[in-house]
């Protein structure tokens, strides 16, 4: 997850999304990684993908603070 964030912070968004997707695929219960993926997708205008990730988080943890805020 951290590498995906670093890639995003340095403007390497496509690589960031791929890394975060890899993390989520390896552990779908890693909710913070799903939120990070959603936020990165959102920044790139990938609204449907972002919404799907946030909905997946809220389905598991309805009170997840970051997912609820976005």
What does this protein structure show overall?
This protein is mainly alpha-helical and 70 residues long. It has helices spanning 2-9, 13-26, 31-43, 47-60, 65-69. It is globular and about 30 Å long. The relative contact order is 0.16.
Give the SSE map.
Layout: H1 2-9, H2 13-26, H3 31-43, H4 47-60, H5 65-69
Helix pairs in contact: 1-2, 2-3, 3-4
Uncertain stretches: none
Helix and strand run: HHHHH
Task: Provide the structure class.
Answer: mainly alpha
- Beta content: under 5%
Q: Could you report the average pLDDT, rounded to the nearest whole number?
A: 90
Based on Cα principal axes, name the global outline: globular
The total strand number stands at 0
Supply the key terms.
single chain; 70 residues; 77% helix; mainly alpha
What is the structure about, briefly put?
By secondary structure, this protein is mostly helical.
């Amino acid at each position: 997850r951290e590498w995906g964030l670093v890639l995003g912070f340095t403007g390497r968004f496509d690589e960031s999304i791929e890394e975060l997707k890899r993390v989520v695929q390896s552990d779908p219960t890693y909710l913070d990684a799903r939120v990070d993926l959603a936020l990165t997708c959102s920044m790139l205008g990938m609204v449907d993908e972002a919404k799907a990730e946030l909905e997946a988080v809220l389905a598991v943890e309805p009170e997840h603070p970051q997912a609820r805020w976005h």
